[in-house]
Amino acid sequence: MTGQYSARDFDWVLIGLSLAIAALGVVEIYSATLSTQWQDAHLRQVMWIVVGLALMWVVSAVDYNWWVEHVPAFYVVAFGLLLIVSVFGYIGGGARRWLALPGGASLQISEFVKVVLVLLVAYMFGELPRERIKLAKLGRLAGMFALMMLVVGAQPDLSTALSYVPILGIGAAMAGVRWKNWAALVIVCALAVPIGWYSLKPYQKERLVAYMNPESDPQDTGYQAIQSRIAVGSGEIWGKGLAGGTQTQLRFLPTPHTDFIFSAYAEESGFAGVVVALTLYFALLMKIVSNAQTSADNSGMYICMGVAAVLFFHVVVNIAMVVGRMPVTGIPLPLMSYGGSNTITTFMLLGLVNNVRLRRFTN
Amino acid sequence: MNSYPAGTRKASDVQIAVFQYVAAITFLWLLSGFWQLQVQNPQIYSERADRNRIKSLPLLAPRGKILDRDGRVIVDNSPSHKVLLSRALLNPDHLQIIANGLNIPFERLTAKLRRLETSNAPEYQAAILKENLTQAEVAFVEAHRSQFPELELIRSQRRLYPRGGLAAHVIGYVGEISDAELELDDFMFYEPGAEIGKAGMERQYNDVLTGTDGSRMVEVDSLGRERRIFGKVDAKAGHSLRLTLDLDLQAVADLALEGKKGAVVALDPRTGEVLALASRPTYDPNQFVGGISSEDWRELDRDPEHPMFNRSLQAQLAPGSIFKPIVALAAGESGILDEDFHVTCSGGASFYTRYFRCNKAGGHGTVYLRDALKQSCNVYFYNLGNKLGIDRIAEYAELVGLGRRTGIDLPHEAEGLVPSTKWKLRMFREKWYLGETISVSIGQGALTVTPLQAAYALGGIAMGGVWHRPHLVSYDDLAEVRPEFERPDPIKIDLDSRHLETIRQGLWAVVNDGGTGGRARIEGYDICGKTGTAQLASTQFKQGSDDPRLKDTAWFVAFAPCKEPEIVVAALVETGEHGHLAAPTVRDVIKSHIDKDVRLAWARRTPPLAEAVDPAGPVAQAAAALEGRLR
User: Fold this and answer.
1) Is B543 in the A-facing interface, judged by CB distances under 8 Å?
2) Helices marked H in chain A
3) ipTM
4) In the prediction, which pLDDT does B2 show?
5) B146 is catalytic
6) Among the options B80, B279, B321, B439, which is catalytic?
């Protein structure tokens, strides 16, 4: 801390909510990996949380405007790292998206890109009054997003690439893009759909088809969707208890400690637990939004809303998948899913929000 | 970067508020999803979760053995492997590999799956995919245990039938239940893939032989590994079925027919128990176990000899002269035959402008009933039949059991045919020609009987007018396994004993006094019998043709001992040319019956040496008693 801020000024509500959710996650990771090859995953997750908290502190320590000012450098570094991953990264889950670190850990650079992109929006829009934001500028920003998405999408990691879109979207919305421009965006997207379909990998097409008709392909993605729904439904109101979920423990549920952690959680803690978790997530989002409202400047507002948008997107897409209201995608649930890169990225994003909160009176 | 006009931030508050509302609505939308699944109708999902993890594996009940009357095993089981399929765990991509590994044609596998889909069987219940796996197929399943959790290997019992088709037509065979059979009331509670009796005893007593399968409920994980056993219901083995067949007699009958086309039926006329029932050519029931291949089936089905056809109760042929005792009985009972009745045979006689020949060209001279039977004089019976008229012949033929099923406990028995004026009117809308009566009186014309009917009819006459329904499972045994079973009463008819005695003497003479059945004679033992040679085609038609298929049918029926019969045997040899050629078969069967009695009598007594050599001891007495029986 730079002296003028004490620990009392930290956004303890924000930190408390996120740690509460992370705790639910750790417990569920423990339960879901009992007697499997990943059975120490919950300890590793605790370690990621600790690392995340540390980085959160680092991110909070320097004025967010300093981070915003240096975004061009971060962007270049991040882009360079992504290219390195694409060439030298190792393959996991059919895509080249991991960068090995010495010591056996590996990083998913595309996760950290989110931090850069949140800052990028603040960099492009934050210093300008809203009236001066021109479509050309929005176009340039979109181009920079597209470049990142292209590289990540080519890994191929379509889900992560898509998760960048809400950051751009909320930025544009906050900057007051007119409805005509939104309409143009929608048309462009509509045109992109058929083109996108042809460029999809077969497994991606399968997922979409399975979503449309889950019973058609009960062993694959449709199978995952069905098993997830069975897990959730059979949890009933009070759940089957920790380590008591048959779908989770007998491994009918796919990846119950990562992408489908919320199915496992819903099975073992029931509707009651779901209400608790969703309330926590909603409160967290609203806290971030309130920080946007009280931010000292536009940069802070863009940062908070960017973070809110990306978390919102992750939570909705993941949980809607769990209840079978969206197709199966590889989007993790922030703060609950097991995984170092996503957990650390989330805490870094929350660190930015905390940063804005810390300095709400400075400017 | 600092100090922006305050107003610019105010405007973005609208967007922030929109975001808040959108977020709130979206979270409610998510929550409603959980509400639907977890609160509104969670039972659906709880059940499905249970189905996921609980697998029901059948414990197959072994089918009951089939034994002969002395408890010797005719049909046994041998250990084998079956493979089961759990549809709940099935990955459609595996089907082709499974089809190859288990040597099941792919189309047959998919057809089977479709049938299972439409059945009531729950998805988690494993169904039989293939039985009697070969070593290689067992190895295939074992090796892919972790890749194919949908497959489950279980030990079972496979049916083992006697080699060479011994008693094949009686025993029948088992096979997979067909779509048509699933519709039957008998198989209401069966599911596709089940093994049932398809023919013979296996079919007739399927309910007795079939045990009750047990099951094992196990908790499995998504890879199909068993984690825990929930419960177990033990299998109950099927009842063993003891037949009245005597393997000794059956073997003799089967051997006697080797290489021929025909049938042998041996009954105990005192009870109706079937001692032997043979039909040739035969087939190997082992071919059917676990599903007959289509090539094997085509071969059996197209065989011009029809090996699946059970001649002993399905062949309907003219009885020829074996019908004569029945005509004699009808005449005696109708009072048109007194002791003085005789006919002078000059080798033929004219009736209704047609000349009917006797079987002996030179004629038999003056014949009374005894000699008429002994020499099988046609002219005598032409006269008798002419006097009786067709309807009286038909009445007595039906009385002794012809023209209707005997009611034996085997499926697909034929009825035979007893012609009459009414029958002709019904069938052909024509009146009866009196000339036809002449043919019928020597067992020709439209009259047909099955070998079983022949033995049944003569057995009843030999018993002095008591007909016991032929059956293959003793009534005592049946009452044990089927509590609702009611013993059928024998049919009893008062017959003139004096007249019966004359017929019996005639039939005795056939075998023992230079008659046509001399080849059936056993030294020191009383056998009454009658030969029959039935034409398939008229002599004129056959002229110049030596097509073997048109050769005459040879019959021989006999009972023994003559006074108190214990056994009645009918033998049929198609294209056997003359009845006396069927006689040795009957003799062999009767001989084995006697030999067996002697052997059993000795086996029952294994006395100390001192007793055995004592001329006044029990052994000597038993030997004397036996001698007495043998006369």
Assistant:
1) no
2) 12-32, 41-61, 64-69, 71-88, 109-125, 135-153, 158-162, 165-174, 179-199, 202-212, 221-234, 246-249, 261-293, 298-322, 340-358
3) 0.92
4) 41
5) no
6) B321
